[in-house]
Design a protein that fits this description.
It is built from three helices and no strands. The chain is mainly alpha-helical and 59 residues long.
Length: 59
């Protein structure tokens, strides 16, 4: 699971994880959350966490 730092663009982190996964023959790639799931999908995510997009922010 890759959750990039909140104050950095997620693309470089997702690209690195995708490269590591490919190098190790992994077919599942869990990365991205509600705010960056589209970017994660572009880099090959097969699983994303979108809880706050569906249920709203925690209180």
């Amino acid at each position: 699971m890759c959750i990039p730092p909140a104050d950095e663009a997620p693309a470089m982190h997702f690209a690195l994880l995708a490269k590591i996964a490919a190098r190790n023959g992994l077919t599942e790639l869990s990365m991205g959350m509600s705010d960056d799931f589209e970017t994660a999908a572009r880099f090959g995510a097969t699983q994303v966490r979108v809880g706050s997009a569906l249920f709203g922010q925690r209180h």
